[in-house]
Amino acid sequence: MIRVALPAHLRTLARVSGEVQLDLQGRPTQRAVLDALEARYPMLRGTIRDHVTQRRRAFVRFFACEQDLSHELPDTPLPDAVAIGAEPLVILGAMAGG
Amino acid sequence: MSGVRVLVGTRKGAFVLTSDAKRERWDVRGPHFAGWEVYHLKGSPAEPNRLYASQSSGWFGQLIQRSNDGGTTWEPVGNRFVYEGVPGTHQWYDGTPHPWEFKRVWHLEPSLTDPDSVYAGVEDAALFRSIDGGQTWQEFPGLRGHASGPSWQPGAGGMCLHTILLDPSHPGRIFVAISAAGAFRSDDAGKTWRPINRGLRSEQIPDPTAEVGHCVHRIAMHRSRPNVLFMQKHWDVMRSDDAGESWREVSGNLPSDFGFPIEVHAHEPETLYVVPIQSDSEHYPPEGRLRVYRSRTGGNEWEALTKGLPQRDCYVNVLRDATAVDSLDPCGVYFGTTGGQVYASADAGDGWAPIVRDLPAVLSIEVQTLP
User: Fold this and answer.
1) How many structural domains does chain B have?
2) Cβ–Cβ contact B57 with A under 8 A
3) pLDDT tens column, B128-164
4) Size of interface A-B (CB pairs under 8 A)
5) What is the CATH class of A2-93?
6) How close does chain B come to A72, measured CA to CA in Å?
7) How high is the pLDDT of residue B2?
8) Which chain A residues are closer than 8 Å to B35 by Cβ?
9) CB spacing of B58 vs A98 below 8 angstroms
């Protein structure tokens, strides 16, 4: 079970409160988590990564275990603590004013 | 009893303002989509409780929201706006080629007859349409693919398709306007397009009378006379009596011929409204006096409408999509400002009063007249 913490605006959009829990097969990666997240919450498609290129939107960041994973390749395995559900994958909007 | 619903898009959410036909007491609901930019929202003429909203943010991109109950509840629908084929390039600000990149939806124009059909004008400039209530979107590539496309350049606000006019008497005829390419018309339901900018003059481009490159800010028509178009250009207020084939200036005695919106009275096709703005860079009312100007002669002769509007120390702007009229009698006129005020006139502009004063900066106003 993977835990995902969404930013407030996306929790509102997906109509969830608190963390989202996802069941994944195999070793979790950013791509696998986002695939599962968008499959369950289709309204999130396009808000975290581009529809076509699948690249992370510029002002979205991925944190876990006190590390910035934003620049990891999408198929890089997530940390063990995320894989076993001990820590959430944190998706957040970059601190960019506005 | 009939009433009015005013749909307000702002920098930080959407608001729905309602009143009965007297237009004296208002109920204010919102913000919907709090914290997001709402460039535009508009109702279907065929089913007034069907609304579409363009919601976007620099962080999370573009969303389209749909309501089936007049804006009480909303559901997100499709947000996949993908250009047809290889997007190609347009000119960047420095004149270099720049790839077409989708940024946001500026304007939503529901079909005149089908609540599930809606057009979207986007940045970088292109026209999309959904025929399934906003679930999926398809581009009309003939517009962006016009031979002049590689020469189009963005205005200061981006290269946006901001105006979509559907001709009620010629179902296949669509007018659009792009900053800063100009006005275009299709007579075959969006398949092919041609520029309709003859008569426009823009001293800020190398060839002031070029076929494309004009910074058109807004076009308006009266649905009873769709061949007559009125345009607020970056400079000049213009008029066409032949569906855009040719234009002539009707700025007349305006204190500034710069501005963004232009609107036509609901029952008087020769009565126009503009909000003159001082420019090129100030973008506030001349002399700090907020004035709507009305022409009852289809242009050239303009009168200042000031009653109820601030006549000193006012430095707000009124953006291109931020005026509208209702179809009651007398005609109601509405506009929103970048200072967050929404002003209404229930007597065709003679007198004004704020409905609300302290919203986020207003990006757009649409009005529905309800039975």
Assistant:
1) 1
2) yes
3) 999 999 999 999 999 999 999 999 999 888 999 999 9
4) 41
5) alpha beta
6) 19
7) 86
8) 9
9) yes
Domain of residue B110 covers 3-370
Contact B60 A9 (CB under 8 A): yes
Segments making up each domain of chain A, as ranges: 2-93
Cα B233 to Cα B197, B202, B263, distances in angstroms: 11, 9, 13
Of B36, B58, B82, the CB nearest to A52: B82
Give the residue from B234, B224, B222, B192 showing the smallest Cα distance to B320. Answer: B234
For the sheet with B216-221, list strands across it. B216-221, B229-233, B237-240, B248-249
AA letter at A83? A
pLDDT in tens, A14-43: 999 999 999 998 999 999 999 999 999 999
For residue B171, give the CATH number of its domain: 2.130.10.10
Report the residue count for chain A: 98
The pLDDT score that the predictor gives to residue A98 is 52
Residue A97 has pLDDT above 70, yes or no: no
pLDDT in tens, B6-43: 999 999 999 999 999 999 999 999 999 999 999 999 99
For B36, which residue in chain A has the nearest alpha carbon?
A9
* Residue stretches of chain B with pLDDT short of 50: none
